[in-house]
Amino acid sequence: MIRRVLLHGLGRGLLTRRPGTRRGGFSLDWDGKVSEIKKKIKSILPGTPRDLLPDTSHLPPEHSDVVIVGGGVLGLSVAYWLKKLENRQGGMRVLVVERDHTYSQASTGLSVGGICQQFSLPENIQLSLFSASFLRNINEYLAVTNAPPLDLQFNPSGYLLLASEKDAAAMESNVKVQKQEGAKVCLMSPDQLRNKFPWINTEGVALASYGMENEGWFDPWCLLHGLRQKLASMGVFFCQGEVTRFVTSSQCMLTTNDEMVTLKSIHEVHVKMDHSLEYQPVECAIVINAAGAWSAQIAALAGIGKGPPGTLQGTKLPVEPRKRYVYVWHCPQGPGLETPLVADTSGAYFRREGLGSNYLGGRSPTEEEEPDPANLEVDHDFFQEKVWPHLALRVPAFETLKVQTAWAGYYDYNTFDQNGVVGPHPLVVNMYFATGFSGHGLQQAPGVGRAVAEMILEGSFQTIDLSPFLFNRFYLGEKTQENNIM
Amino acid sequence: MWDLVLGDRRINSLRLVAPMWNGTRGIHRLGGAVVPEGNQKKERTMLQFLTDHFYDVEALRGYLLQREMSKVHLKNRSFTWLEEQHGPYSAGAFFILKQGGAVKFRDKEWIRPDKYGHFSPEFWNFREVPVEAVDASDCEINYEGLDNLLLLKELQSLSLQRCPHVDDWCLSRLYPLADSLQELSLAGCPRVSERGLACLYHLQNLRRLDISDLPAVSNPGLTQILVEEMLPNCQVVGVNWAEGLKLGPEEQPQDPASPVPA
């Protein structure tokens, strides 16, 4: 009997709940009622912990051992090596502060992505060689469990540098230095060049140097993504914000020559959030300036350069943003799959892009032609007048080409000697620089990151000696000139 | 536990690659840096789920991956010190045979290790006899191991089929063999892409090149055409890019049954 009652009751329940046949639809109302009941319960019961305290998940932590200003490839590389070389796992808290999480103006993403060892300074060659081996073994260095391996899209096609009569002797001595350091570069005469690459017009070329191994170009976004992923797994903190203030404390000391020197030390960094006045003071022990094209502003915040000119206090960081254009064009009769990155005697360069007869390239303007770095607008006339004639002269197939697109990016240009600034500042004792690479920062990032990490953890450069790149040279006037800048 | 991960897609030579993410999907994903989230969620294995939730499992998998990598490094250690005592050809041959490949000296028979990995020591006497052909299929040669392979200066035929660690960087190292190398096979190498194939331009004496079945090449037909243009004297075997092309109206094949127009 109970069963019959149950069935009967259930049956009626089912009948009453059947939608469609009855007007009103009891089922719809039921869902609405449930959510209303939930809301009522929530308002009656005490709130969740999230409601009691304000949400601060977008703010950086209040204390951090190292604050890295700038989240481009150099900043991330320093963070990676700091975490990798620290003696204890989790021994150091590293915070990377990046103003723009879309990296819309960062030099890393807008870069052409080349890596080559054809420099005149041995330190630069060693940095590039190490970076090549880092990129080759990137899946061992940046391995994250459960993540797919990185594919850098590396093109090992090499660099081909052309030299006119007056530069030929310098090129020969450079190649000698490069070979001594272990780079695989060979010299070619114009005849050999014509044999190897029949699409080149060797008029005006006296000598060429061709990199056979460890040279080419790759995808910088992939490197950036891989570094970010690995750093997140290593426990590095990321913050999107802008550094607006350094709070420093000073100490007056006497040198051995009885001169007074004021040594400053940064103990707090104010990080301001986007589109708001909110800021977070981060107590820190070490600050790394990897802000690329804007490094001079960060240095000025720390008081570097505020003093009478000609003194160490008055020596500014000579890094400024310089705008460079990159143009992409299509040329169906252009050079084939084997094309290296060709750098002409005039400074114009180009390389292949993909399988579809697309090429990209550009040229560094002379000092008088320097465009205004206030924005990243592209000047197409520059291509017509200053780049195309040189390309068409060197590669006759480029007389008919069609520009598809173009973009502009910044070089963090070191106006003193076009080489990077690495290492601590003599007066602001806990600010380390990793900037000013004037167009070859991407290819030297792994090596420089390791050097800065060694400087911080061990006190001196251990593997590659980057003493010629210290800040002191700006005050002492000793230029570490690099001749092969593109 | 590995059965859960590999399922029915166990490929021995790719064991380093397969357990760490979804089987063969992983190989095909080498072309892109980021896997779309939707695809990943569907095929997540229990091991991946555990890795996301337990530090121990993550650490264990990291340790096992490091161990696999150090095994490969050990296999590719340098044998160049054997060169003074036995000559470059024997040193290089020893490296190949240790890896499991086969070697052919000039005017001699192929020397192949048996299924236990043992091979006859007669090649130690061939001090002056150059190695003509190397069959390193399915061997775990990587960039460092090529140091040993490049000792064989007069190599004419090289087969690197299905080598899991041969990638574009390795291809850029082959140019010292340009004078002698006539035959090269890269069929089935999962890491070789069209960017590495561009380095084969230096091998001007190459007469036969096999680039079939390269999963990392984005456009096999176009790549085949570009490689054929790059190496005009070489017969390139790979994709038949002509099939599937539509013929123009004047080239329509005549149907034998229809009447021949007068």
UniProtKB/TrEMBL annotation, chain A:
Its cofactor is FAD. Pfam families: DAO. GO terms for biological process: mitochondrial respiratory chain complex I assembly. Keywords: Electron transport, FAD, Flavoprotein, Membrane, Mitochondrion, Mitochondrion inner membrane, Oxidoreductase, Respiratory chain, Transmembrane, Transmembrane helix, Transport. GO terms for cellular component: mitochondrial inner membrane. Gene3D superfamilies: D-Amino Acid Oxidase, subunit A, domain 2, FAD/NAD(P)-binding domain. It is found in: Mitochondrion inner membrane. The keyword Transmembrane applies. Associates with components of the mitochondrial respiratory chain complex I. This is FAD-dependent oxidoreductase domain-containing protein 1. It comes from Theropithecus gelada (Gelada baboon).
From TrEMBL, chain B:
It comes from the Eukaryota. Transmembrane segments: none annotated. SUPFAM superfamilies: RNI-like (SSF52047). Belongs to the ATP synthase subunit s family. Required for the assembly of the mitochondrial NADH:ubiquinone oxidoreductase complex (complex I). Involved in the assembly of the distal region of complex I. Interacts with incompletely assembled mitochondrial NADH:ubiquinone oxidoreductase complex (complex I). This is Distal membrane-arm assembly complex protein 2. It comes from Theropithecus gelada.
